[in-house]
Every structure is written in structure tokens, then in C-alpha cells.
Amino acid sequence: MNIRTHNDLEVYKLAFEAAMRIYELSKSFPKEEKYSITDQVRRSSRSVCSNLAEAFRRRKYPKSFVAKLSDSEGEAAETQTWLDFSYKCEYISETDRSELYEIYDRILGKLVIMSLQPEKWSY
């Protein structure tokens, strides 16, 4: 497959779908969580995607590319933490937490592979 934009990356598609699922789930979070868990889990999940987009545009510069992928990794791990809090606070089910956690594990794996092979993404 010819990858022309960040939208063509499998990891981006996976992260975008996960962020949208989190958005839908978080609509039912209590109002008192609006400026805490709700905002944080939405922000971090979306940030995985935005950092990936930035990384893709910086792929000509391997160190910058890897740095943005690292930022994306950090946001993915943060999202997992907010999913844990959401589950422990009984805002999401164990099934939703487990499924999303597994998706973010896959995302993290793909990000690590990209980071270890920056030359493969350069043009």
C-alpha cells in the first residue's frame, strides 16, 4: 500500500477509531468528571493521533520523527491510565477497558517499531 499521508497509516487509523470510541463512551461519564477524567482521556487519546500526524510530516528528519512518535507513545500510555481510572470509578465496563487497553497495546507496539526504523519512513 502506498502511504501518502498520515491518514494512510494503519496505526493512525487504529488510534483514530479508538479515540472516537473513547469519546462515545465518555459521553456518559458524570458531569463532575467533565474537567477531570472526561477531558483528560479525550485529550490524551486525540493527542496520539495529532502527534502521529506531526511525526509523519517530520519523517524527513529522523530525530524529530522519533521524538514525535515518542510523544505519541506517551499519550497512548496516558490514555491507558485514564481507562484504568474510568474502570475503577465504574464509568466503563471491564470489557470496554480491556478491549481499548489491548488496542492501545497494539498502537504502542506499532509506534515502537516505527521508532526503531525511522529510515524506512524517510523520503
What's the alpha carbon Rg, rounded to whole Å?
15 Å
User: Average pLDDT, to the nearest integer?
Assistant: 96
How does the overall form come out from the CA principal axes? elongated
Q: Give the % helix.
A: over 70%
Can you tell me about this structure?
This protein has 123 residues and is mainly α. The chain has helices spanning 10-26, 34-57, 62-88, 94-116, 118-121. Helix 1 runs antiparallel to helix 4 (94-116) and helix 3 packs antiparallel against helix 4. The protein is elongated. It starts with 9 loop residues before the first helix and ends with a helix. The mean pLDDT is 96.
Keywords:
123 residues, 77% helix, de novo design (two linked rop proteins), mainly alpha, elongated
